[in-house]
Amino acid sequence: RFDTTYLKLPPDFYVRQAPVPVKGPRLIAFNRALAGELGLDVAALEADGGKVFGGNELPAGSEPLAQAYAGHQFGHLTMLGDGRAVLLGEHVTPDGQRLDVQLKGSGQTPFSRSGDGRAALGPMIREYVLSEAMHALGVPTTRSLAVVATGEPVFRDRVIPGAVLTRTAQSHLRVGTFEFALYYGHANQKPELLKELADYAIARHYPELKDRPTKYGDFLEAVADRQAALVARWMNLGFIHGVMNTDNVSVAGETIDYGPCAFMDEFSAGKVFSSIDRNGRYAFQNQPQIAQWNLTRLAECLLGILDADPTAATEEAKRRLTPFSTSFKTYWLEGLRRKLGLFTEEDGDEALGGALLAWMQNTQADFTHTFRHLNELAGTADAAFSNWHQQWQARLSRQPQSAEEVRQRMNAANPAVIPRNHRVEEVIRAAEDNEDYAPMHALVAALAHPFEDRPEYRQYQTPPKVEERVAATFCGT
Ligand code: AMP
Ligand code: MG
After folding, report:
1. What single string gives the DSSP state of each residue in 17-55?
2. Is 247 known to be catalytic?
């Protein structure tokens, strides 16, 4: 059920572009649960979805397009656009939700520059696994509907199998889409593009704002609030996005672009995985400040519509971004309290959490495992931990909730199963080397229930041995 409102934006924002067919499409991952939520014909797609999800056959009603956008990549502005993706359309689900359905790795577009428009199997499996894990963890995210092996090789540092990922999203409106509207609009005497985009984004994601006289300022503040909440969730889970460029920041507030991202194993505040992030710009602890930096780029785009007077517009933009750091802190602390089983608030809670993180950092303790097993660790860890544990127990005793209530709260906030890097690498290797997709399916099944302690998922819960630790992740573009 396509109803693609993006086509009503001025044609500057997109190019009509069909996916380029692939030689031997083979459906290797299909998300039945998501397909069901979308109201699709699950059985038919499972049997014969390769052609549609590989881009060889257009579903009825699809008017495919590649979106134009720009972005600050590692701090530098570039004009971009879907260089290896096409939007099949906006699908309306049975319960009335509007979702973008996009093919990624679907061939060249006018935005491809020197790229081949294709994607490698490994990174598409990575995105499928990580985004579905994120969803099960309750964090706003784009989702993955299918992966098709194309039967065609892609040429990177070596020859690897190609793939197409089908992803769904609230939309693909990025901070970088606003940067495109501003800079392209400026260069082409089309200043009205920015306002048209802002009105479109508000109607689609913040409809409650659309009749307010202060709607553009409200929009900026609302986007900032969703980013604050999102990055706080990442930080509570030890997630490192790895490539927080403005083109990878959704104005709908979803996690988007699972390139070189990773969940931390042993805790380190300055941890960087991405092999392309040489200066650690997107290190774990930098993420809140980077989110704010990205929001400042959005604010710059909006200046012209915030107020006709430039000085007043700048003041308004600043005022709208001021709450960000406090909101982030509040969301993060809320999450930390849940992780520690705290129902009440005390001034010392942040320091208590901070002391635990410092202990993890000093001892290279596993982030996920430590939080999940705080109680059992008391007998086995060192004296510093015992000391911390006593303080924590004392804190717990100052709230009325029972031990059982505390246990339940903690188990609902501290996942047992996360997509650990060494397991993700393992399933990718099996797929790449042997066309064996069973390990991927098993991992995906475990990740669907991240808060459950099932014996059959033990292998996915256990932190990597030192020699199993994955040091770096690769974009693989
Ligand atoms: P990403 O790192 O995936 O966010 O991509 C950044 C930009 O590079 C996007 O505009 C992509 O469309 C483009 N891009 C990435 N890989 C390719 C490729 N293989 N061919 C063409 N464009 C690409
Ligand atoms: Mg991207």
Report:
1. -PPPP-SS-EEEEE-HHHHHHHT--HHHHHHHTHHHHTT
2. yes
